Every structure is written in C-alpha cells, then in structure tokens.
Amino acid sequence: MEHVPPPAEELARLDRELAELDARRAQLLTRRAWLLAALRPPTPTAAPGWNPSAWGAPPSGRPGAPAQPWGYVPKQPSAPRSAQNVLLTLGGLLLAVAAVAFTLVSWGSMGIGGRSAVLAAVTLGALIAPAVLLRRGLAATAEALAALALVLTLLDVYAVHAVAAPDTDGLGFTAVASAVLAVLWTAYGLALGKLRLPLPAAVVLAQWPLLFWVWAAGAPALVVGWALLATAVLDGVIARWDKGPGVRVTACVGGSAMGFSALMVGLALSTTASGPLGAAAPGALLLAAAAAALAGAWRAPKGFARTGGVVAGLAAVAAVGGVPAAALSDGWRVLAYLLCGLALAGVVRAGLPRDAARGVLAASGAVVAGALVWALPSLTAVLLGPVTLLSDVWAGSPESFRSALGSTLPWSELAAAPVVLALVAGLLGSAYRWWPSVVRIAAPLGAREETPKPDAASRAAGTPGAAWTAPPGAGAPWYTVAGAGARGRPSGAALRGAAGAGALALGWGALLLAGVVLDVPYAVAVAGETALVGGLLALAVRGAGSGRGASAVPVTALVGAVSGAVSVGLLSLASEGAAYAVFGALTVLFAGAAVRVGAEVPRAVFAVSSAVWGTVLTGFAGRSLDLDPHEAAPLVLLVPALTVLLGARLRRNPVALPVELTGALGALVAVGLAVSDAPFLALVLALCGVLAAGAAVRPERRPVAGYLAAALFVLATWVRLAASEVSFPEAYTLPVSVPALVVGVLRRRRDPEASSWTAYGPGLAATLLPSLAVAWTDADWLRPLLLGVAALVITLLGARHRLQALLVIGGVVLALDGLHELAPYVAQVAGALPRWLPPALAGLLLLVVGATYEQRLRDARRLKDALGRMR
C-alpha cells in the first residue's frame, strides 16, 4: 500500500528538490562558461577581473542574475600612474641640478647681458609652461615644471645678491627676498588655481621675513619673540583661508613651530627676570600668545580647539604667574603659578566654546599636577627617610624631625610644599563637600549626548529614540542612552569619591611636610604622626561602616593608615621609649579598628596589622631584657599563641584565617631567631607544635594543623636528640612511639574510617626516622640490620592490612636503609668498572624505559590507585 504524504510535507519535499536542481544547474552553467572561455584564442592581456586558476565555490547571486565563472575576481580600480610621477620627478630634479650647476659654475663666464637674458628666459619659460600644460590637461607635468620654477626663483635671488648687491647684509636681503617671493608665489598660485605646489611654497617662504629682519636689525630676544608670534598669527590666518589641505597643513605646521618658539622665548625671559617689572614685558608676549591660541581655537575642530585651549591656559599662567614669581624666592615661586593655574577654573563662567574651555581646564589641571609633582620628592623623603634608622636601632632620640630623617634635601627651598598640598587638598575637599554645586557650575562643559535619529518604523510605532533597544540577536547597541555612563566615562559618584580621596591624601601629606618644614622636636613629630594614623583609622572605620559599599575615601584612609603606621614605626626606632609607645599605640588602635569596623576586608587588614605590631613589641621585649636572639624566640611566640586563641574565638569568621596566618609567620620568625642554638630551636619547635595542636582541635583546621603539629613535634625531637649528641635515639623515641601507636590502635578500633596517617604516622616517624638518620652515620652493622627488619615488618603489615602510612613509611625507610648498606659495594664496583660502562648502562636503561613508557605509566597509575584505596 503506497503512502501518500500530507500536502504540506509533499510541498516541502518538492521545494527541496527544486532548490537542488537550481543549484546543480547554476554549477553546470558556471562550468560551461569557463569551458567556453578556455576554448577561445588567448589574448595578450588577461581580461580584467578574470582569474581562471582561482577555482572555488561559485558565487551566489540572486535568481535570474547571470552566473559568474569560477575564479571570478572583481575588477580593481586602476593603480596611480606611479611610473609617470617617477619620470617627472627625476626630470625636474635633473633640471634643478643643472640650473644650480649653471648658476654656481658657469655664471662668471658670461657677461651681464647674457646672465640676465639666460635667467630671465629660463625662469619666465618655467613659469609660463605650467599654464600651457594645464590647458592641455597635463597636470602632473605642470606640477614638475612649477617645482623647477620655484628652484629657479631661489637661484635668481642668490644670483642677484651675488652680482647686483654683494655688499648688502645677507640677513636683511634674505628677509626682503623671502617676502617678495612669498607675494609672487601667492599671486602665481592664485592665478593657476589647479597647481598644488605654489601656495604651500608661498606659506613656507612667508615664515622667514620677520624673523630674518629682526635678526638682521640685532633686536633683543623679546622682539624676536614678537616676530615669531606675529608669524604664527599669520599662519593661523592662512590656515583659516580655505585654499586646500596643502595650504592648511603647511600653515598649521609652520604656525605650531613659530608659536612654540615664541612661547619658549617668553617663558625663558619670564623665569629669568630680575624682578616684577622685568617679567612684565615677557608676560605681555605670553598673554598675546594665549589670546592668539584662544582665538584660533574659537571655531576650530574639536581636537584643535582643545589643543588651543591648553596652550592658551598654560601661556596665561606663565604670563600672569611670572610677575609675582619674580619677586619671590625659589621655594615659593611654584605657589604663584599654582594660584594662577587654579584661577583658570573660572573659565567655566567665561562663555568660551565648550572644547576650548575644556582645553583651558586641562591646562589648569596640568599646572596643579606639576605643582604636586614638585612637592612629591619631599613627601617621599618624609615617609621613607626613617628607613636609615634600621641600621642603628635605639641609638638615642634625635633633636628634631629633620635630623631623624637623615635626608639631604634643601628643606628651606621646599617651604611652599606643605602650602601647595594643603591648598589643593582644600579645593578638592570643598568640591567633595559641595559636589552638587560643582556639577551645576560645570554643566555647560558637559558632553552633549548624541541620540540616534529614529527610522521610519520606529516613528510609525511611536517609539522615542531614547528608549530604543537593540534588535533580537544583535550585539551591544552602537548608541548610548543619555545618563547611562556614555562612552565609559566615570560616573559622578566616582569623580566625587576621587576628589575626596585626593583631598584626604594631600591633606595628610601637607601635615607631614609641615612638621619637617617647621623642624618640630622629635617627640612632637612622633606623637603627631601617631595621631594622624589614629585619625585615618577613624575615617576608614566610619567610611567602611556607612553601608554604602567600597568608596575611594575609606580605601585611601586605610592605605594611608597602614603606610603612616609603617613610617612612624620606623621613625620611633631611634628611641626605646618611643618605640614601645608607638608600637603599643598602633597595636591598640588597629585592634580597636578591627573590632569596630563592619566590612570584612578592612577588618582583616586591621587585625593582621595589629598582630604584626604586637609581634614587633615582643621582639622589643627581648632586646630590652638583653636576651640573645635565640633566647628571645620564645617571647615572639606570644602573639602566635594569641592568634590561635583568637581563631578559636572567631571560628569560621573570614577574619580568622588571615589572623592565624599572620601568627604562623610570627612563629616562623621565632624559628629563624632560634636557629643559631639547637636546644632553643627544639624548644621553639615544640612550642610551635603545641600551638598547631591547639589549632587542630577545630575541625576546619584539623586537616592542615594536625599534620603540621605532628611534624613539628617529631622535628623538635630530632633536634633535641641531635643537640644532646645522643648516639642511641631509640632509647628516647621508643617510649614515645609505643604509646603513640597504642593510641592509634585504639583510635582505629573506635573509628575504622580514620586515616592511618593520623593513627600511626606520628608514632612510626618518631622512631624510624631518627634511627634512619643515625644509621647513615653508623659504621656498625647491627642498627641497620634491626632497622631494616623493623621496616620490612611494618611494610608487610601495611600491605596485609591495606594501611597506607605503614606501607609508605616502612617502604621508604627500608629502601633508604638498603641503599645505605649497598652504597660501599656500589662504589667499589663502580670504581672497578671501565669508565665507559656507566654511561652505556644509563643509556640502555633509558632506552628500555622509553620503549616501555606506556606500560610503566599504567603501572604507576595502578600503584597510585592502590595506595589511594588504602586508609
């Protein structure tokens, strides 16, 4: 019985078959077209867009479109006539070289009439020829002859000066000649508007008349600066003259160079002036340059407008600030420029174009940043200077703050540094306090949000442009809705937080620098820095507990508190009393902050810092008691003991782990102090084992602290035995091992799932490992034999009862003991063998292992799995 599909299914099947037939037909037509093309007779040049060798998938076209052959490549636009340009350039260059050679070599062999006739004829011909060539459409040839004409006019000027006016001043003649040539080439370029060379050449020639004229007149540097500025202004006017990109680019480059030179002249004269009156004239030049830059930025594009605003702002600061700075000493001049830079912020009310005003504000920020960079070395010296006290701890209280720092900075020339920091901190703090007013004032400079224009569909649907969304399946939209953080700019809250953080950091630095500049007594400096640390801790606790999440202000306060604590701690090392007072206060302050703060990360930082300061205090106690380092090591363990108790109190609190790790580092320091004396080292290791055992009482610390405690106890035993020069350690270790193994057996009976390492590992290691260490230095045969037998029995018991600890410990001890016994014979055999035999055996072993690598790998995995299944 024949199955008749439903109409919908049959229609779909027919559509698929028709599509396959169309695809096959298109493929056959494409192949047919290629075969027809291959049968045609070859042509000298291949047809454009045809590449028979590039077979690939036939291009998909719309239905009914003519099929393209396989390998079809779209026709590329024709390449520029590079060969013609090269020929014209070489021809013009050769003619220019010939003209130069004629002028310099053959000029003197002709009379005055011949000279004039040759120069006039050649130059006139070079100037007329481009006009004729342009009428015939030969623009490239006309450009080449125009370049030749430019060279000829320059040679004409040189020839006139060499023959007709040899006694005239070269600089003055160059100034007049460059002005005349600039006018002539400007007229020539305007007359032949299709030529691109004459007008840019005229702009280049216009750069030199004023400069060479004032140079020839022997004018002072200030007049040279005015000439450079006037040339830059002329370039700006030319750049606004719409005569093509070549003219604009040339004028912009020339104006930038001349304007920069004028600014450098004015700045050099202003900073080296002997008084305010001497700085007024260069200031006028700088103000004129600022006005010119601002005028150029008024209607310029975005990038040029901002650049012009920056230049105008910096020039205005240098002009106005240079007058009072000339009357101040070197240490206070930066303050005059800073005040002028801050005054630039008033540009937000000046009604300037938005981009130009932003440039001026950027200049203000650059001035402020420069002042802060100037004050940075002094602040760094205050924070890092006390490091020099580490070489001579408790040598005695210095007389003043400066003498404690040991810095060679000229503090008298840095007197304005704290004022600079305080002034900027006050302004940032005011902005942080009255942020809504700052936003309202700066609103005219805000970026205009670009809203995409709605298309016909959205207009028909009545969808507003600001509420558009990307179509389904599309990626991120290309537009940004207003108020949603356009273009990744920082939000207002982030900017306000940055202002508050900057105010806090700079205010703290200002107070530190004030103490150094005033050279306060040492005790006042230590007390003041400690009080600053307390204030920063209070701000950090208050900010972190406000519930507003992470903010720049509390984070800055946290970093400043830790940095200040380190600095004042180093500063207090000069005096014993100051060291105890400072580190005691720091321990209490940071512990109190850890108790009061609500956030987890600041609490962990405060708790860890308090533990560190407490550890330093215990080290001070040992030094005060005149104890040797190894004798003071047990005192250092007081803080690790407190951290273990605190960890038991906090339990699973996130702060517990950082505190306990800090205590572990303190214990490691104690071990390092006791290394020089073996008995004290054994005592310290045993105490550390007690602390680790105390931490192992908690279930969450048991997997790590339990093994660590066992290892520390065993290591303490070995060290104690080695220190006592015990030759029979079994007499001391067996009484410990037997009860430990009995306890392990009882533990396994009560809890069969307990690990063999926890039950039997400490007891076995306490005896076997010290015996193994002594056996390696024992020349007798009895101990290695007994040790080997015991290790063999333990290994067999581990394999019989599937106990991992017994199998591993017994096997390792048995292998090492056997290796020790075989070592003399191996050495004797190795000495008797030829020298070539050991390398040959090693190579053979490597070959065998390499050939059976996969099998050895499988054996290793099976061994690993077998050990893993043991308890």
What does this structure look like?
73% of the residues lie in helices and 0% in strands. Mean pLDDT is 79; it is low at 44-88 and 448-486. By secondary structure, the protein is mainly α. The chain is extended. The longest helix has 33 residues, at 7-39.
Number of strands: 0
Number of helices: 33
Oligomer: single chain
| CA-CA gap between termini | 70 Å
Share of β-strand residues: under 5%
Helix- and strand-based class? Answer: mainly alpha
Shape: extended
What is the radius of gyration computed over CA atoms, rounded to a whole number of angstroms? 45 Å
Helix content: over 70%
Strand and helix map with partners:
Blueprint (H helix, E strand, L loop, with lengths): L6 H33 L42 H25 L5 H24 L3 H25 L6 H22 L6 H8 L3 H8 L4 H19 L5 H27 L4 H22 L4 H24 L7 H11 L10 H31 L16 H5 L11 H17 L1 H7 L14 H6 L30 H27 L3 H23 L7 H20 L4 H21 L3 H25 L4 H8 L1 H13 L5 H19 L3 H19 L5 H22 L6 H21 L5 H20 L6 H20 L2 H29 L4 H15 L1 H17 L2
Helix pairs in contact: 2-4, 3-4, 4-5, 5-6, 5-7, 6-9, 7-8, 8-9, 8-10, 9-10, 9-11, 10-11, 11-12, 11-13, 12-13, 13-15, 15-18, 18-20, 19-20, 19-21, 20-21, 21-22, 22-23, 22-24, 22-25, 23-25, 23-26, 24-25, 24-26, 25-26, 26-27, 27-29, 28-29, 29-30, 29-31, 30-31
Give me a quick take on this structure:
The protein has 871 residues and is mainly α.
Tag the structure with descriptive keywords.
mainly alpha; 33 helices; extended
